[in-house]
Amino acid sequence: MSIAEGSGNPERDTRQFDAIARGSALECAAILDAFEVLGLAAGQELVEPREPLEKTGSMLTKRALAEVNRGK
């Protein structure tokens, strides 16, 4: 949701929404880790739900690094 909200806003707002979305992806990944540690799900069961989180987190990290490299 945060990525979609930020897409139509000024650049500064977009960066903020991206940061929020990245944090949300990390929180979701942590929840999946907790499921595994608590024995609520096996490692193989968590591969599919982790993939989009990893892709989204990676994309948002790359966007943030690109902004830093551009000096913004």
UniProtKB/TrEMBL annotation:
<dbReference type="InterPro" id="IPR036583">
    <property type="entry name" value="23S_rRNA_IVS_sf"/>
</dbReference>
<protein>
    <submittedName>
        <fullName>Uncharacterized protein</fullName>
    </submittedName>
</protein>
